[in-house]
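User: Teach me something about this protein's shape.
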Amino acid sequence: MVVPQRRGRLITIQELLDIQREGVPTRCAHCKRDATDRDRDNTEAALRARIRVLEARVSELERTRR
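Assistant: First, the predicted structure itself:
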């Protein structure tokens, strides 16, 4: 790999990492999703689980009330 030069000097490791970071796609090439989609999915799954727990409690209260 040829290391780019800036004004007659070799670039630093930090500059090289910055260049590579800029070139990284923001979305997955396979599923077309990004990190925020994954966070959203995790949040929705947690909310669904919480809703199921609350529905179970409501059902239990309704049964004991009868």
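Now, about its shape. The mean pLDDT is 78. Residues 30-66 form one domain. If you'd like, I can walk through any region in more detail.
User: That's plenty for now, thanks!
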